[in-house]
Automatic annotation (TrEMBL):
<dbReference type="InterPro" id="IPR028081">
    <property type="entry name" value="Leu-bd"/>
</dbReference>
<protein>
    <submittedName>
        <fullName>Amino acid/amide ABC transporter substrate-binding protein (HAAT family)</fullName>
    </submittedName>
</protein>
<dbReference type="Pfam" id="PF13458">
    <property type="entry name" value="Peripla_BP_6"/>
</dbReference>
<comment type="similarity">
    <text>Belongs to the leucine-binding protein family.</text>
</comment>
<feature type="signal peptide">
    <location>
        <begin position="1"/>
        <end position="31"/>
    </location>
</feature>
<dbReference type="InterPro" id="IPR028082">
    <property type="entry name" value="Peripla_BP_I"/>
</dbReference>
<feature type="domain" description="Leucine-binding protein">
    <location>
        <begin position="35"/>
        <end position="379"/>
    </location>
</feature>
<keyword id="KW-0732">Signal</keyword>
Length: 395
């Protein structure tokens, strides 16, 4: 799930920054008058995701510097769930019941949606995750992730392979961890329903610790002319190396968002030319005007430029817009009502997202996916789909 400009490394300083900044008290107002916003993020453990809450913190800090909302500062309370389901459940109760957060924004947890969906429904609290890796994030109405996520990203990549690149024997290799299995099944089912085509090979057994060679040999023997591979960045690099060892340079490779980093491009150089990846937002390594405010704020706040940082920035920005819609007291109930009103003609538009943001009670978040694709050319990522590509799932 990694996607940073500087690669896989998550520095301890950034994790500390999120923890320290979330506890800072602005001189705008006393703490008891603050608007509390929560986030659950995996800040320690084998896989850390600090950029999303760090980016959200930067957004809220700027709002506070500009006078807050209704003269009240936003206090951003971030809990590290350490990638542990038990801590995820405990932390959510601390944030909701003890801290009294009015909503969540910028969350980047490995299991928040699965563990806490029912609890958030009982407490009438809503979340705009900055990183939504679980398939359940897109089907539980308490959540409205701004990210495309693995299932929808893989569907877009498969569609791109056959319908845009014209490939005839498309093969799918999807991450085999249990949490991804429902999403994998949805991806394959949707691809076949939308295109009326069958994939040449489907492999949902790849794991981060795997030797990729046996999987690559399966693809070679199946005669794939395009491969969609969904994994973390290090898995992607291992996959490319295995393909190169088998002299499969004539097979088109399309990767999910974790591969879209400057680190990935630097490691492969021109040997990676022709590899595609999808971008969940306006490609962050590009020069589009839509990136200007985000990039400037991230650089000022010393947050690494990444897709995860885009997610945190967008989610926090959307919540701020919802807070501004509240005319009376800002409470959990009024914020939930404001978020639910962001639907239909009142959906919010932000230039880094390919589709309007809709959090209505009947919103179908699986239907609001849009991505762009990038390709390695001369060792650098270039955007090859100027317009966002939206795919409407079949019913």
């Amino acid at each position: 799930m990694n996607n940073t400009q500087n690669g896989r490394t998550r520095t301890g300083s950034l994790i500390s920054l999120v923890t320290i900044m979330s506890a800072l008290v602005s001189p705008l107002a006393h703490a008891d008058s603050a608007i509390k916003v929560g986030a659950l993020a995996t800040l320690s453990g084998p896989m850390t995701l600090p950029e999303s809450p760090a980016a959200a913190q930067a957004v809220f800090d700027r709002v506070n510097q500009q006078g807050g909302i209704q003269g009240r500062r936003i206090e951003y309370v971030v809990q590290d769930d350490k990638g542990d389901a038990g801590i995820t459940a405990q932390s959510s109760r601390e944030l909701v019941d003890s801290q009294g957060v009015v909503a969540f924004a910028g969350s980047a947890s490995l299991q928040d949606c699965t563990v806490n969906g029912n609890f958030y429904r009982q407490r009438n609290v809503l979340s705009i995750p900055g990183v939504g890796g679980e398939f359940s994030c897109y089907s539980n109405r308490q959540f409205a992730p701004v990210s495309v996520g693995p299932a929808r990203g893989s569907l877009a990549a498969l569609y791109f392979a056959s319908e845009k690149l014209g490939k005839k024997k498309v093969c799918a290799f999807l991450l085999g961890i249990p949490a991804h299995m429902p999403g994998n099944a949805w991806t394959i089912r949707q691809y076949q329903a939308i295109t009326h085509k069958k994939l040449a090979l489907v492999d949902t057994t790849t794991l981060p610790s795997d030797d990729m060679t046996p999987h690559v040999l399966r693809a070679r023997d199946a005669g794939c002319d395009a491969i969609v591979f969904a994994g973390a960045e290090q898995m992607d690099l291992a996959w490319v190396k295995a393909m190169q060892m088998q002299n499969m340079g004539n097979v088109t490779l399309i990767l999910d968002t974790p591969a879209y980093t400057s680190n990935f491009a630097q490691i492969l150089g021109t040997k990676g030319d022709g590899i595609y990846a999808n971008s969940e937002y306006e490609p962050f390594l590009g020069t589009a005007p839509a990136l200007t405010d985000w990039r400037n704020l991230m650089q000022q706040s010393k947050v690494p430029l990444s897709s995860f940082a885009q997610g945190g920035y967008i989610s926090a920005t959307l919540l701020v817009e919802a807070l501004k819609k509240v005319k009376g007291p800002i409470t959990r109930e009024s914020v939930t009502e404001a978020l639910r009103s962001i639907t239909g003609e009142n959906a919010l538009h932000t230039p880094m997202l390919g589709m309007p943001f809709d959090f209505g009670v009947d919103s179908d978040h699986l239907s609001t996916s849009a991505t762009k694709f990038v390709e390695l050319k001369d060792g650098k990522w270039e955007t090859v789909t100027p317009d966002f590509m939206a795919i409407k799932p079949a019913k």
